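One record is given unchanged without comment:
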Amino acid sequence: MSAAIAQAEPKKKTPARQPKRISLQEFLRDYSDIEDGFKYELSHGLIEKTLKMNQFQSKLFFILNRLFINTVAFKNGGGLISEIDMVTVGSQLRRPDIAFYSGEQIKIMTPSSNQVAPWLAEVISPTDNADKINEKLKEYFDAGVQVVWHIYPASAQVYVYTALDEVTICIGNKICSGAPALPDLEITAAKLFA
């Protein structure tokens, strides 16, 4: 008798399950009021789940808000708000960490309207994906945002974008400016992270 060597048959690969895409209306219906410590955004019909701003990140919002009350935009009824719904391009829905809306924009906000913030800031955490950060940056400019701040608390830096290829890196006493959207919103990186 010859010994037969049993060979394992190769396992058949199961096709990867494709994530379910949803519409903007489905997203707004199902994800607008969830209070579970996460922030949900809609990108190309897919849900992106990230952590909401923590206390330290919220402190940056408070610092900027205190500075903002000295601007002409504040005197004209504008305001800073955190994690507000903003449809960017197509049916993409983002919730920027901090966004500025002019007094005129606030007057015409309704449940069915969409205003695009002229200035916004994203607080970048060590777990954020660089490709997704850059994708959102392009999306913001395509939607009409004029200035985007990427705030990096871990390295005490602020990248101030006025276009995809125009960036000022603020470190130490370098001034971070909100111009042209908020020309009188200025702070050094050192003061922001103090």
